[in-house]
Amino acid sequence: MSPIAHRPAGPALLDLPGQTSVAEGPLDLNGMYLAHHAFRRDLASFARAAAGTPVPEREVWRALGVRWERFGHVLHHHHSAEDEVLWPQLLDLVDGQGDADGRATLEAMETEHHLIDPLLAGCAEGFAAMAERPEEGTRQQLAGCVGRTREVLAHHLRHEEEEALPIVQRLLSQEGWDAVEEAAGSGTSIQRMRFLVPWIADGLTRPQLDAAFASVGNVFRVVLWGTRRRYARETSLAFRFA
User: Where is the Hemerythrin-like domain (predicted)?
Assistant: First the structure.
């Protein structure tokens, strides 16, 4: 009998568009799934925008650069919390069980993170160049960089959902998961929250939003109410041609 059979049932977990697996178990992983949904959604929009935004549209390119900076900051912070808090805990646990396959999965998670950061930086440079000196050749290079980033991150998110998160549910304690969520939420300024909350909520149905608020706290309803209009205006400008 697997170790998870002895653990209590957990909350209802989200199954969002693009998500490839739901890791059932005692821990509330909905914050993870919400972030993954937002990463996938934005990268699809960035890919369309990079390919479709006319070269002379400097205002739109500037808005895209700002949106990419925010997107990249959230993604980097998300991965840092995993690298610094989540994977080290799990590596100790799988090693304690002599689980070589589990160690290989977790080491792959870290390796995949290292592939993503240079791509984020390269795309940021491309968006900045389009805002300053818009050229068709630069736009084409940027579109390729965004497409590659989307491809690499899609593989990573699928790998994490299908192989790493089941390890989380099987082995990690509630205290261990609380430490991960604390790290994920640390250092988030009020200004960042004004973007982060409507960004997470973007594209969710009412039942999905209700489940999200149940996981992250109803205070986020108030933040969403106060930030969604500005977020919608900024998103509409950045992705005007997406």
Answer: 32-167
Q: Which amino acid is at 240?
A: R
Please tell me the pTM assigned to this model: 0.94
Of 30, 24, 41, nearest to 217 (Cα)? 30
What span, in angstroms and rounded, lies between the C-alpha atoms of 241 and 209? 27
- Angle at the Cα of 228 from the Cα atoms of 48 and 74, rounded to 5 degrees: 60
Q: Give the dihedral of Cα atoms 70, 73, 79, 84; nearest 10 deg.
A: -150
76-115 residue pLDDT tens: 999 999 999 999 999 999 999 999 999 999 999 999 999 9
User: How far apart are alpha carbons 202 and 237 in whole angstroms?
Assistant: 15
CB 172 within 8 A of CB 97: no
CATH superfamily of 28-188: nmb1532 protein domain like (1.20.120.520)
CA torsion 219→222→223→224, rounded to 10°?
120
- Could you report the per-residue pLDDT of 16-75, keeping only the tens digit for each? 999 999 999 999 999 999 999 999 999 999 999 999 999 999 999 999 999 999 999 999
